[in-house]
C-alpha cells in the first residue's frame, strides 16, 4: 500500500485523542534498538560536526507546531519573534514554521498526517496508548513511516540529548517504546516544575469572614456556604470545563479515587469513574450544585474568559487553576481593581483532618504532549536532529528558558533574572512578554531557575499543592501499548469517555438520580472498560520491566 493511501485510511481514526492521566521508574541509551533512520533519503548533509553551532547549511527546515497564544498577539509566526530570529542565528538553520489555528490543532493535525506532504518535524503529542495523537501510538506511526525511529540519528547527531539520557536512566526509560525505540525529542521538566496547578481561594474573603483556608471537605462546605450567603457569590466555586470539570481530582480524590485512570496502592490500574466510592464523590458535587455552591453553569466554562469574568466580578471565590496563567494573572488583574484582592493555595482536600491527599496534579519529567518527531518524509533528518539538539545544550537551554541575555534577562551573580523590560511592561504581563523571547512549551531542557512567579502566594502554592500522594497514583502518559492495543484503546476509550462525561454532568446537575450509578457502571463495563484497563495494566507492567 502506498504511504499516501495508508495515511488516508487512518485519517478517520485520527479524529479522536483521549487523554488519560498517567507514572515513573528507570534504563539507559539503547543503541541496539531498531536502527532504520530514513537516512538514505537525507540530502545536503550539514558540514558542521554534531554539537557544533552555527551549522553550515543552505537547506531550510519545515516545522509544524502550535504557536503560544501569548506570542500570537505580537507576531503571526515564530520565525518573526525575537526567539525565532535568535534561534536561527545561533543554530545557523533557517526554519519555515506552520502553525495550526488556535483551537483547531487536532483537526489540522489529522489533515496534515493524511496529506502527502509532511514537514521535516512535527511538534505534537507523540505519546503512547490512548494519549497519543496518532492512532496506534508511536510504534504504529513508525511502522506507517509517518515518523522516523531516532536511535541512530540521536546516537550520531544529538550529543546533548544523548548525554542527558546516559546520565538520567529514568528519563531514558520514559522517552522510548517497549522495544527500545526513541520516537521524539522530549520536553524535560525540572524537578521543581512538576506541580503547577491546584485549588485556590480568596484569602481576603476568608479574613473578612474570620475563616481559615479549608483543608477538608466539610471545611470547604462551610467556606463556600459563607461565600454564597455573606459575600453574595453566585458561583462560589467555579472551574474550567474542557471535556470534563478541570479540577485535577480535587474533592474527588478525597474519596480515594480519581476522575480518570489511576494506579492503586497495590500498583494496579483502576478506572476511577466506576469505583464504588466515585458515587460518593458525585453525591458531594451534586449536593454543592443543588445548594448553589458549585457554579450552575460549570459545563459552559469552556474557555478562560468565562472563568476570568466570574473571578474578577466576585461571582466566584474559589477555583482550581494554574500557578502562572491562573493565580498570577488573576492576582495581577484583581489587585488593580481591589488592592485587597488575594488568592492563596489551598491543599487538595481530604475527608479527615491531617490526611495526605490521595491524588492531585503532578506531571512527569517527560510529558509527550509537546514533543517533536521527525517525519518519514523528511529529506533533512540529520539536519533536523542537529537543530533540535541545540535546545539541550547549555547555551540553547538558556535561550529556550530565558531568552536573549541583555534583552529579556541578565545574570545576577550567575543567576538569570528576567529584565524590567519583561517584568514591568505597562501594557503586557510577564507571560506575554516572555513568550516573545522563549518557548514556553516544547522539546527542550527545562531550567529549575526559571519562574514566572510575581507574587509570594505563588511560591507558597507549589509547596502546598505538592503535599499529595499523586506520585504513587498518577498514571503516565508515556506508556506505549502495542500498535494493535493502541488502536483498540482509541476505539473503546472514545465511546467510554464520551458516555462517562455525559453521565457525570447529569449526575452532578441532578438530571440523572445518583441511585442510577450502578446502571451507569454496568453500561461502562459493557462498553469494554475491563479490556481497556487490562491493556493499560500490561503496558504499565512492561514499562516497569524496561
From TrEMBL:
The keyword Signal applies. Residues 1-27 form the signal peptide. Pfam families: SBP_bac_1. Keywords: Signal. InterPro entries: Bact_solute-bd_prot1, SBP. This is Extracellular solute-binding protein.
Amino acid at each position: 500500500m502506498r504511504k499516501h493511501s495508508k495515511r488516508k485510511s487512518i485519517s478517520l481514526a485520527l479524529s479522536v485523542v483521549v487523554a488519560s492521566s498517567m507514572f515513573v521508574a528507570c534504563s539507559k541509551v539503547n543503541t541496539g534498538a531498531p536502527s532504520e533512520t530514513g537516512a538514505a533519503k537525507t540530502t545536503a548533509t550539514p558540514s558542521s560536526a554534531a554539537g557544533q553551532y552555527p551549522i553550515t547549511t543552505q537547506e531550510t527546515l519545515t516545522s509544524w507546531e502550535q504557536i503560544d497564544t501569548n506570542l500570537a498577539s505580537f507576531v503571526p509566526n515564530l520565525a518573526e519573534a525575537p526567539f525565532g530570529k535568535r534561534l536561527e542565528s545561533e543554530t545557523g538553520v533557517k526554519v519555515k514554521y506552520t502553525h495550526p489555528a488556535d483551537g483547531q490543532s487536532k483537526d489540522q493535525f489529522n489533515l496534515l498526517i493524511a496529506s502527502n506532504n509532511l514537514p521535516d518535524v512535527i511538534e505534537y503529542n507523540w505519546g503512547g496508548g490512548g494519549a497519543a495523537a496518532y492512532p496506534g501510538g508511536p510504534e504504529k506511526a513508525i511502522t506507517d513511516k509517518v515518523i522516523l525511529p531516532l536511535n541512530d540519528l540521536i546516537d550520531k547527531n544529538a550529543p546533548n540529548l544523548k548525554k542527558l539520557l546516559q546520565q538520567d536512566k529514568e528519563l531514558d526509560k520514559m522517552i522510548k517504546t517497549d522495544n527500545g525505540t526513541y520516537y521524539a525529542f522530549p520536553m524535560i521538566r525540572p524537578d521543581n516544575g512538576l506541580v503547577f496547578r491546584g485549588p485556590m481561594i480568596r484569602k481576603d474573603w476568608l479574613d473578612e469572614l474570620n475563616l481559615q483556608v479549608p483543608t477538608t471537605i466539610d471545611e470547604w462546605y462551610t467556606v463556600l456556604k459563607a461565600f454564597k450567603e455573606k459575600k453574595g457569590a453566585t458561583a462560589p466555586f467555579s472551574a474550567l470545563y474542557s471535556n470534563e470539570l478541570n479540577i485535577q481530582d480535587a474533592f474527588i480524590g478525597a474519596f480515594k479515587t480519581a476522575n480518570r485512570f489511576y494506579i492503586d496502592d497495590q500498583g494496579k490500574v483502576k478506572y476511577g469513574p466506576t469505583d464504588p466510592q466515585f458515587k460518593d464523590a458525585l453525591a458531594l458535587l451534586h449536593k454543592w450544585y443543588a445548594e448553589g455552591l458549585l457554579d450552575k453553569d460549570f459545563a459552559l466554562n469552556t474557555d478562560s474568559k468565562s472563568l476570568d469574568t466570574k473571578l474578577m466580578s466576585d461571582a466566584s471565590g474559589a477555583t482550581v487553576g494554574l500557578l502562572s496563567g491562573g493565580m498570577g494573572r488573576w492576582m495581577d488583574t484583581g489587585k488593580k481593581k481591589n488592592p485587597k484582592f488575594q488568592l492563596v493555595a489551598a491543599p487538595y482536600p481530604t475527608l479527615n483532618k491531617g490526611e495526605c491527599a490521595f491524588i492531585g496534579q503532578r506531571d512527569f519529567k517527560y510529558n509527550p504532549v509537546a514533543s517533536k518527531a521527525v517525519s518519514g518524509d523528511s529529506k533533512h533528518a540529520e539536519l533536523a536532529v542537529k537543530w533540535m539538539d541545540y535546545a539541550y545544550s547549555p547555551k540553547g537551554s538558556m535561550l529556550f528558558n530565558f531568552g536573549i541575555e541583555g534583552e529579556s534577562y541578565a545574570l545576577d551573580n550567575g543567576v538569570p533574572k528576567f529584565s524590567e523590560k519583561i517584568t514591568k511592561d505597562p501594557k503586557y504581563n510577564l507571560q506575554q512578554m516572555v513568550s516573545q523571547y522563549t518557548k514556553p512549551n516544547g522539546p527542550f531542557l527545562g531550567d529549575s531557575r526559571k519562574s514566572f512567579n510575581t507574587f509570594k502566594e505563588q511560591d507558597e502554592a507549589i509547596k502546598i499543592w505538592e503535599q499529595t500522594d499523586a506520585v504513587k497514583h498518577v498514571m503516565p502518559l508515556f506508556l506505549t501499548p502495542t500498535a494493535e492495543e493502541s488502536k483498540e484503546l482509541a476505539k473503546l476509550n472514545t465511546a467510554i469517555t464520551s458516555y462517562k462525561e455525559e453521565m457525570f454532568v447529569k449526575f452532578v446537575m441532578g438530571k440523572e438520580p445518583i441511585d442510577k450509578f450502578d446502571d451507569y457502571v454496568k453500561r461502562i463495563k459493557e462498553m469494554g472498560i475491563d479490556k481497556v484497563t487490562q491493556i493499560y495494566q500490561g503496558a504499565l507492567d512492561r514499562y516497569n520491566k524496561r
